[in-house]
Amino acid sequence: MGTVDEGDAMEVAAASGWPGSSRRSHLLQFLLHASKRLDLRPIVKYSALEFFDARFLPALPRKMGFCGARSGRAVRSWLVEPLRDSNLQLFALVAVWIASKIHEMRPLAVKSLKALSDRIIADQHFTCRDFADAELVFMEVLGYNIGCTNIAFIHLEELLQFREISKLGDLVNMDVCMEILDILYETEDTSWLFNFACPLAASTLVTAYVISVPKQKWEFPIIPWVQFTTSYAEEEILKIVMTILMHVIKPDEIKEKNKIDFSM
What count of other Cβ atoms lies within 10 Å of the Cβ of residue 262? Predict the structure, then answer.
């Protein structure tokens, strides 16, 4: 069983200082907007977020030598020298492209991504060849690590099987769960949670249950269920649940969960 060490995760994130809170938030909002415009399936969206936010952005400074020591062969490309915001937005779309190749029988066509980029990337127009070049750079930065089994959304889908056991599960809307995940991605203070995909999924489900199910109907033993399924301690799950609640609803509303109207 793993343990969630918030201090270590946040220390690592803070140490790099890259790409900066404002820039990161803008890039993730861009990726989420692109996902909506492309009408991506959730698994594609969250795989793209994992590739771009959890792997590409943290690894890029090391690959470019910004941290004093290079990790393997240095990346050399006009797409990263200089590193403009428009180029990072291109890499975000490349993350979507790669994720669609993994999860879709008919992946997104590069022409579709180029057409979208022409509309939503303001500073530069990229060619189809630029997308291909960016894909090679992206894969090199990731060290060709595009495994995507340990993603919070996948664990969340597995945990939602409790809806087959209890009719109360019908009240837990997957859209609410995804709204929570999106908010956590966009919030710098909670991005570290995605380093712990399984407990995050368990805590997201508990949070969605608390928000969606009226208090007088709290009959299903949701905490024991996720604890049994994930083998994580109740204290760890509840700690993350409280962190999530503090960021997705107002603090004074936490005391009256049965009155919450979750609409974002």
Answer: 17
Instruction: With beta carbons less than 8 A apart as the criterion, state whether 206 and 160 touch.
Output: no
145-168 per-position pLDDT tens digit: 888 778 889 988 888 876 666 666
The answer to whether residues 144 and 137 touch, using CB atoms and an 8 Å cutoff, is no
Cis peptide before 61 (omega within 30 of 0): no
Q: Which of 35, 56, 62 is nearest to 46 (CA)?
A: 35
For 18-62, the pLDDT digits (tens) are 667 788 889 999 999 999 999 999 999 999 999 999 899 988 887
d(CA 96, CA 38) in angstroms, rounded, equals 10
Decide: 27 and 111 in contact? Cβ < 8 Å: no
* pLDDT tens by residue, 46-102: 999 999 998 999 888 877 754 444 445 566 777 887 788 999 999 999 999 999 999
> According to the model, what pLDDT value does residue 10 have?
43
Among 85, 83, 67, smallest CA distance to 25 is for 85
Tell whether omega for the bond before 82 is within 30 degrees of 0, i.e. cis: yes
As a three-state string, the secondary structure of 24-80 is: HHHHHHHHHHHHHHHCCCHHHHHHHHHHHHHHHHHHHHHHHCCCCCCCCCCCCCCCC
